[in-house]
Amino acid sequence: MGKRIVPPEEPAEIHEVPLRDALEERYLAYALSTIMHRALPDARDGLKPVHRRILYGMRLLRLDPGTAFKKSAKIVGDVMGSFHPHGDQAIYDAMVRLAQDFSSRYPLVDGQGNFGNIDGDNPAAYRYTEARMTDVARLLLEGIDEDGVEFRANYDGQSKEPVVLPGGFPNLLANGAQGIAVGMATSIPPHNAAELCDAALHLIEKPDAKSKALLKWVKGPDFPTGGIIVDSKQAIAEAYTTGRGSFRVRARWSQEEGARGTWVVVVTEIPFLVQKSRLIEKVAELLDQKKLPLVGDIRDESAEDVRIVIEPKSKNVDPALMMESLFRLTELENKIPLNLNVLIKGRIPKVVGLAECLREWLDHLRDVLIRRSNYRKAQIEHRLEVLGGHLVAYLNLDKVIKIIRTEDEPKPALIKAFKLTEIQAEAILNMRLRNLRRLEEMEIRNEDRDLRKELKGIEGVLASEAEQWKKVGEQVGKVRDMFGPKTPLGKRRTTFADAPEHDLAAMEEALVEREPVTVVVSDKGWIRTMKGHVEDLSGLAFKQDDKLGFAFFAETTSKLLLFATNGKFYSLDVAKLPGGRGHGEPIRLFIDLEQEAAPVALFVHKGGRKFLVASHEGQGFVVNEDDCVGTTKKGKQVLNVDMPNEARAVTEVVGDTVAVIGENRKMLIFPLEQVPEMARGRGVRLQKYKDGGLSDVAVFDAKAGLTWKDSAGREFSATMKELAEWQGNRADAGRLPPKGFPKSNKFGKVIG
Question: Domain check: are 177 and 300 in the same one?
């Protein structure tokens, strides 16, 4: 028999929720939880919840500085069980970072055992390492037992945890923080605690001081790994004012002399958060790829301290230029972002400037001071009440003893007989017999007097805001002295310098191995390079319908100048041109050449020369080569032309006389001095045409005479005497050229 199918029970109630609403609600909850409870630090104590819980857990284990170490496993277990119900490895990793002196500027945990290293090696497992708190952590927790901060229930409601720590140390900026939340991130580099305290003391005196004014003390970040910040003061000021920016940090290096004029560069400090082993691997890779022609070798000689030795290719290399090439290509220079995104009052994420950041910390210190003062006041008042009861008992000892011995309920009888409070009667009943000795009255009165004096002081502080700030100032001053510039931990490690301005051309050259090449350009404008100076190009293959346009010799470090029909000069690096056996690439890939424009000439940029540029309409001028170099792909406009007019010719100015020939096959010769020198413009008329336009120009030395090449490559020349009938002035029409002048109407001169 088959089984009887039981219809499923109808669910009690089904709620229909639009997917969008459900997603929004759930994603917002997740985002808030990440922002508030994971990624962003609190502006007051500078800690994220995991760090706060680790320190509080260590406090409960009584792991104060100077006490015996306890196993990290014990700390992690207690923190996970009581406060942080997340992965044990996550808690341990957070604790390790607090102990690493290359990650934390002022470590909060004192570790014993292998806590990892700057090479990026992992720490030992938590069953092998031990830890306790440092003095900095003790400062952060000071006053937590005196109701200094608010407590909340932990995740299971079994115990309490602090919402924020009393934070007697400017931890947010001193140790910094990194974190990625949802839709926002934070990145705060470490700073020097003594400088922060000086700035905070100024802020107590002048509460309205702006971030810029505080830069007198806080010069910039102070990384645990040292290094040199090479940013302008304006950029640093801007970053601290807005709370967003970045810092360029470079490795610290020095030159060490060797035997017979040899030398090496020794790097002793590397930028923050850079793993040394990865850095050296990267340099070795670049050496293999021949991208560091100035560097010969790199090796790591580090022990406790960083010592990276870099050998040059030869002793003639400029060490500064070699290091500049390394800074450009490796993490020896690193950008450290600043994004002061913190939780204000533990609730609101906000990007703040330096002044607001310190303001939050100082306001918190004042709140903690008021809470601790109120706590102490309540303690003193309770003790004074108890002392009053003790004194009554002492002065009426026999009567008190009689009441206690004879009354069934001595407490109400004592209260009635001596007008005592409940607390005083309880205190008398709890007194020990040894407290009835003769000296007791004096001691009670002395203690009472001292406590009343202390209470008066506390009430004075609570009543006056000025007194409260004075106390906060004293507290900040003590921290400043503890971590002053003369202490080993407080001494500034990161220094400031201006980035050396190296010639960019020299830099580019330094990054490319200098080798001879032949640049080949096809008729259709495809460009490629061949190794060496190749004379015979007859064996070269081209695409269908394409052939050799022209070729010339250059070096891999050369820069090329391309003059186009739009009157612009474009710059190309030979090192970036395609090599190998292919057909190359179209020139247009390397520059932004308009579709209707075409190349007129391409040659090696040497610098310092002069060119005569001319348009189809016969206008032109002399321009300096250095005025032709553009830095962008868009090129540099030199000869102004409007379509259909276009740039037609460019020639090097070598001599004192200009020869110009038109498409109408008329030639004119006139002195060069009639042509002005300009950086940009239309120019002046070189030759007059009835129809057609300019074909070519040449500049030659009158003494040597004019030379030209015919279509077969044979060279002809004519002296100024022979050219007498073609000589005239600029803008004349000219006359038909001498016999044997090529039909192409070109002088056949190429810029070398």
Answer: no
Is 705 domain-assigned? yes
Tokens 């090129």 correspond to 635
Residue 496: predicted pLDDT:
93
CA atoms of 427 and 431, how far apart (whole Å): 6
> Which pLDDT value is given to residue 512?
61
Report the chain's terminal Cα–Cα distance, integer Å. 103
Summarised one tens digit per residue, pLDDT across range 126-135 is: 999 999 999 9
CATH number at residue 273: 3.30.1360.40
Q: Which residue, 306, 331, 356, sits at the end of a domain? A: 331
Which CATH number fits the domain that encloses residue 156? Answer: 3.90.199.10
pLDDT score, position 418: 87
Identify whether 219 is part of a domain.
no
Distance CA 486, CA 480 (A): 11
Average pLDDT, the chain: 88
pLDDT digits (tens, 9 = 90+) for 373-383: 999 999 999 99
Total number of domains in the chain: 5
Same domain, 272 and 382: no
CA distances from 151 to 39, 42, 45, 301, 345 (A): 21, 15, 15, 50, 14
Element (H, E) at 518: strand 516-522
Is residue 596 predicted with pLDDT exceeding 70? Answer: yes
C-alpha–C-alpha distance, residues 450 and 40, integer Å: 45
The pair of structure tokens assigned to 632 is 């962008």
Tell me the pLDDT band of 739, cut-offs 50, 70 and 90: confident
Same domain, 569 and 652: no
**Beta partners for 636?**
569
Percent of residues in the chain assigned helix, strand, coil, to nearest 5: 35, 20, 45
752, 622: one domain: yes
What is the percentage of the chain residues whose pLDDT exceeds 90? 49
| Under 8 Å between Cβ of 222 and 494 | yes
Separation CA 69–CA 89 (nearest Å): 20
Report, as residue numbers or ranges, the catalytic residues.
128
Closest CA relative to residue 650, chosen from 672, 677, 623, 671: 623
pLDDT over 70 at 501, yes or no: no
Residue identified by tokens 């201006």 is 498
pLDDT digits (tens, 9 = 90+) for 456-489: 999 999 999 999 999 999 999 999 999 999 999 9
| CATH number for position 657 | 2.120.10.90
Domain contains 142: yes
Q: How far is 562 from 629, CA to CA, in rounded Å? A: 10
Considering the domain architecture, whether residues 699 and 566 belong to the same structural domain is answered as no
| 157 and 29 co-located in one domain | yes
Q: Look up residue 263 and give its two tokens.
A: 């030398």
Note the pLDDT of residue 311: 92
Burial level of 566, CB count in 10 A (0-12/13-18/19+)? buried
Do residues 566 and 517 both lie within one domain?
yes
Residue 503 has pLDDT above 60, yes or no: no
- Rounded to an integer, what distance in angstroms lies between the CA atom of residue 278 and that of residue 282? 6
Is residue 51 predicted with pLDDT exceeding 90?
yes
Domain enclosing residue 393, as ranges: 369-482
Report in angstroms the alpha-carbon separations of 688 from 415, 567, 611, 663, 692.
128, 20, 21, 11, 10
**Taking a C-beta distance cutoff of 8 angstroms, is the pair 336, 221 a contact?**
yes
CATH number of the domain residue 380 falls in: 1.10.268.10
Instruction: Report the distance separating Cα 181 and Cα 48, nearest Å.
Output: 12
Report d(CA 627, CA 607) in Å as an integer: 9
Residues 42 and 73 in one domain: yes
* Token pair 């792909």: residue: 633
Q: Which amino acid is at 68?
A: A
**Residue 194 falls inside a structural domain:** no
